[in-house]
Amino acid sequence: MKAIDVFRKHKGEMVRLWTDSVFDTYPFETTGFLRTKDDPFGNPVAHMTKEAAGALYDAVTGETVEVAHTKKAMDRFIKLRAVQTFSPSQSMAVFSLMKPILREHVMPELVAQGDLAAYLETESRIDSLMLLAFDMYVENREILAESRITEIRNQHAQLARWAQQLEGGNVPTGNDR
Question: pTM above 0.90?
Fold first, then answer.
């Protein structure tokens, strides 16, 4: 059996285990909700995580190697991690969670076939994928920071206008925007 066939055989289980591992990074009171509510609108975190998981597995195993396709699949998941309260390392560590899962469930089968090289290539792709994810994460955090700075500037400008009106004897009303 070829290495890709071994990876395909384990895809469902690997995706489920990785998704569960990602859910475990959330506070305890949240994990039950993430696992049980399937509505994409009622539970967008779980939906985005599950959506990204399959595409990430395909990229890691070499099933899909097109960077643009992988970035598109990861985009919403990375944006989600960028706006949550995790540290950058916690946000990106979820990608490395796939390594021990693959080591336990797939590597023994590939080693038994004498194809350790295929497994090692997979771990290298995980590392590359994590670097790509980090670049995307930083880009999203920069956009978020710029948005916050713009909001603060707008608030400051509004306060300055009100202060000028107060100094001039004009009391601002709700229509002075």
Answer: no
